[in-house]
């Protein structure tokens, strides 16, 4: 049965925008009609799909209002699209503002559209501590028809922090394995000046404080004392200046490559031996899954959903937040043992292709939609 599905996300925020967009694309490929209701075109829609539509939320600035009324404009646009396109489902990513806007939009439309809300983390693990917002988050969750979260850890955290009277189902994230796969990009090693025998460690993030990129650099500093290695830092964000200074102070300028924001990450992962994700908050860690799908084992921290993606000793290692000695000793052990590395790399690929396979996750979302309509 073909469904008409509206999707709202922050199109450019990061993992949540990526997952929402990829889900829309896969649903469209299965024949559903997809209506993105967002403030700009989701950034990964890079080809024409005849059954994907984009409805832009226009937010005007009026001198009488101190803040542009995004939430109201979004709810208004949702109501318009629910009615005009006769939506069956409105799937929103983030409890606030998007679930709350969806509830208002549904009331305004006077149609029985079903609301599915997916929690990605920031709305709970950051905003959930703000008493001025918890009531609205709880309302958004309780009034949604179905609520999902991207890891078991996030389900538990949401219950602990927000106490909603609502079941929350775990539906893991996924990646498009047609894109994230081992590719032959070995010429990049030469272009980046990576010598034969040098190991490549990669970190990808938006360089927010929670990503603890300084721990990545500190761990790398210890690793490169034992093993010839280069660190690829991919992305940009608020902590970049601090990280640049740290790299200079440690005398690592010729070993750390700042690549900025990049597309085609599969090419960078395919020349990498190890991924580091040392965040202090991370409800899932989509970038770890992206790396694993390219055959790169990962070392992550023991927080949030990371241990559900990276399994200690199987496809990578888990360390305590801030323990750069533990990270470096596990990294050195892995990078200096070829057989061990090959086995973790194979297991990383297997994890991406089984536990988190896009078909499996897509099926779970489709089941949720079908049960509702
Ligand atoms: O981590 C970020 O800075 C971006 C954030 C977002 O809202 O896009 O990512 C969250 O959602 C991703 C997709 O579900 C998860 O992979 C990230 O772990 C999660 N980030 C945090 O929980 C801090």
Summarize the structure.
This is N-acetyl-alpha-D-glucosaminyl L-malate synthase BshA. The chain contains 15 helices and 13 strands.
The span between the termini is 10 Å
Describe the strand arrangement of the main beta sheet, using strand numbers. Answer: 3-2-1-4-5-6-7
Helix content: 40-55%
Structural class: alpha/beta
The pLDDT mean sits at: 95
CATH superfamily of the largest domain: Glycogen Phosphorylase B
Question: What characterizes the major β-sheet?
Answer: 7 strands, parallel
H/E series: EHEEHEHEHHEHEHEHEHEHEHEHEHHH
The third-level CATH topology of the largest domain is Rossmann fold
Tell me the CATH architecture of the largest domain.
Answer: 3-Layer(aba) Sandwich
Strand content: 15-25%
Count the beta strands.
13
Q: How does the overall form come out from the CA principal axes?
A: globular
Radius of gyration: 21 Å
Give the CATH level 1 class of the largest domain: Alpha Beta
Which runs of at least 5 residues are low in confidence (pLDDT < 50)? Answer: none
| Ligand catalogue | ligand GMT
Integer count of domains: 2
Number of helices: 15
Organism: Rossellomorea aquimaris
GO molecular function: glycosyltransferase activity
Domain Glycosyltransferase subfamily 4-like N-terminal: 13-177
Protein name: N-acetyl-alpha-D-glucosaminyl L-malate synthase BshA
